[in-house]
Amino acid sequence: MDIIVCVKQTYDLQQVRIRKETRQPVFENVPLTLGNIDKNALEEAVRIREKAGGKITVVSVGPETLEDTIKEALAMGADEAILVTAPKLDSIESALSAALLAKAIGQAGPFDLILLGEGSTDNYSGQVGPRLAELLDLPQVTFAKSLHIEGRTLRAVRSLEDYLEDVEVDLPVLVTVVSEINEPRIPAITQILKAGRKPKKVLSPEDLEIPIGKFGLQAETISNLAPLQNRKGILFKEGAKNIPALVKALEEEGLLRR
Fold first, then answer.
1. Of 79, 115, 150, 237, whose CB count within 10 A is highest?
2. Is residue 257 in some structural domain?
3. pTM of the entire structure?
4. Which residue range is the domain that position 124 belongs to?
5. Predicted confidence (pLDDT) per residue in 131-168, tens digit
6. Please, which pLDDT band fits residue 221 given cuts at 50, 70 and 90?
7. DSSP assignment of the chain, as one string?
8. How far apart are CA 66 and CA 60, in angstroms?
């Protein structure tokens, strides 16, 4: 079973601060990591390989810092990595990202399954998976919360808004997973040390014959502000006698029900 897992480098959102004066996120000195749901996709690939054997190749697009971040994926269990790096790839839209990934996957050789997270931790547009499936002319299964492979058939349970859907499709196929599918493993020290010695192929957009300067942006981010929250500022004194007033206030806000 040869599996491709597409991952994205992003900021560790747990360490992002919001500047009070401007409500702008502060990214200076925030460490880079793999997207949370990308880790779920990679974990699922490792579990499938443990049952069926085969190889896992992680593919990613980003700036030069990606070469260090991708070691996390190799430590989690990926066998090799294919990276497309360039300074201008630190913030690109879904169309260009999918185009570069499609070309990079062409460098990986035959595959049975492509896995992605349903959306990236930062933009969460959910477009790269479907765009990539279209470019590669593959069937796709989105929002998968469980996967089972038997022979050349994949069965998945899709987690939709208010119901679950069972689907069945022949391999090869592209699947986007939701975070409920598993709990990503934490690599052991030995796996982290071995990650640096695993094969890694680094390409540029020019190597893939995709001139990013001429690709053309189809979307532009106008603003990226934290949501403004208006607080009522209701204060309650400490003490058991003030609990009923607190409960009443929470009920009036619809936060509690009797």
1. 115
2. no
3. 0.80
4. 2-215
5. 999 999 999 999 999 999 999 999 999 999 888 999 99
6. low
7. -EEEEEE-EEE-GGG-EE-TTT--EE-TTPPEEE-HHHHHHHHHHHHHHHHH--EEEEEEEE-TTHHHHHHHHHHHT-SEEEEEE-GGGGS--HHHHHHHHHHHHTTS---SEEEEESS-SSS----HHHHHHHHHT--EEEEEEEEEEETTEEEEEEE-SS-EEEEEEESSEEEEE-GGG--PPPPPHHHHHHHTTS-EEEE-TTTTT--HHHH--S-------PPP---------SSGGGHHHHHHHHHHTTS---
8. 8
Residue 104: inside a domain, yes or no? Answer: yes
Please report how the helices 66-76 and 36-52 are oriented relative to each other, as an axis angle in degrees rounded to 10: 40
| Both tokens assigned to 139 | 């069937």
Domain-located, residue 118: yes
Report if residue 224 sits inside a domain: no
pLDDT, tens digit, 9 for 90 and up, residues 90-147: 777 888 889 999 999 998 889 999 999 998 776 667 889 999 999 999 999 999 999 9
Please give the tally of structural domains in the chain.
1
Structure tokens that stand for 222 in this block: 């106008």
